[in-house]
Amino acid sequence: MTLVLDAGNSLVGDQDPAKNTRGRSSVTVMNMMGYDAMSLGPTDLALGLDVLRQRVAEAEFAVLSANAIVLATGELVATPFVLRRMGGHQVAIVGLSGGDATSEIGLLDPVEAAEAAVAELASQADVIILLSHAGALTDQHIAETVPGIDLIISGGEREFDSPWRSEKTGTLVVHADRASKGHAGRVLGIARLTFDGAGKLIQQNWQGLKLSPEIADDPAMMTWVQQHIVP
C-alpha cells in the first residue's frame, strides 16, 4: 500500500495559478493526485485563518499541524494527526509546522509538540510518521530525543542530501525537494519501508526521483493543466 505525503509549504508559492487562487488550485491538484496528508508550512500559514480554513475544507486529504495555534483562542489551527490502517499496521501521521508566528497564528515549541503527539499515540499506533516543516536541524533533534517516531519527512531548507538515521532511537529522517524561486516539485521522494509485526522499521530504501521529461504525463492532469495554466 502507498501513502502520498507532503511536509508543507505546498499550497501557494510565487507562480500562478497557485498564487492568484491563494492555494485553491494546489488543493485541486493534490486531490487529483490522491494525497493522504500534508503538514502546514510557513507559507501555508501566511495565507491567514480564513483562507486556510477554506483550503482545509476543500481538501480531500488530511491537513495537519500539532503546533500551529490560533492566537486569539489557543486552539489548534488544524488536526494534529490522522490514523490510517495499512499493511497490518495502525499508522499515525503527525504534522509539525515551523517558521514565524503571524498576526493570527502562533507556533508551539515543535519538540514539545512532537513529544506530546507521540505520547498520545503510543497506545493507538504502532507506526508513527512525522511530516515536519520545523527545519532539518530541529527534525534531527526530534529524531534523537523523541523515541517512538519511525520516519520524519523533513521539509524546508535542505541540510542533508541522503537519508539520516538516529543511532539512539532508530528514527529515519528524509528530505525530497527544496523549492527555489520559480520552481518547485522537481523531485519526488519515494520511501519503501518494511516493518516487522511489532511495527519496528527493519528495512528501508529511499529514492529521490527527478521528474524529468522522460516520465510520461498523466492524461487527466495534462487536461487540467491545459485548461487552467497553458495560455
Mean pLDDT: 91
| C-alpha end-to-end distance | 38 Å
Helix content: 10-25%
Q: State the helix count.
A: 6
Assembly form of the protein: single chain
Overall outline: globular
The H-level CATH homologous superfamily, spelled out, is: Metallo-dependent phosphatases
Instruction: Domain count, please report it.
Output: 1
Biggest sheet layout: 6 strands, mixed
Strand order of the largest sheet: 5-6-8-9-11-10
List the helices and strands and how they pair.
Layout: E1 5-6, H1 24-33, E2 37-39, H2 42-45, H3 49-58, E3 62-64, E4 68-70, E5 81-86, E6 89-96, E7 105-107, H4 110-121, E8 127-132, H5 136-145, E9 151-154, E10 164-165, E11 172-174, E12 187-195, E13 201-210, H6 219-228
Parallel strand pairs: 1-2, 2-3, 6-8, 8-9, 9-11
Antiparallel strand pairs: 4-7, 5-6, 10-11, 12-13
Care to describe what's here?
This protein has a single domain, classed as Metallo-dependent phosphatases (Purple Acid Phosphatase, chain A, domain 2, 4-Layer Sandwich), CATH 3.60.21.10. Helix content is 24%, strand content 27%. The protein contains six helices and 13 strands. The chain has helices spanning 24-33, 42-45, 49-58, 110-121, 136-145, 219-228; strands at 5-6, 37-39, 62-64, 68-70, 81-86, 89-96, 105-107, 127-132, 151-154, 164-165, 172-174, 187-195, 201-210. The strands form four sheets. Strands 5-6-8-9-11-10 form a six-stranded mixed sheet, with helices on one face. The radius of gyration is 17 Å and the shape is globular. 36% of the residues are buried. The mean pLDDT is 91.
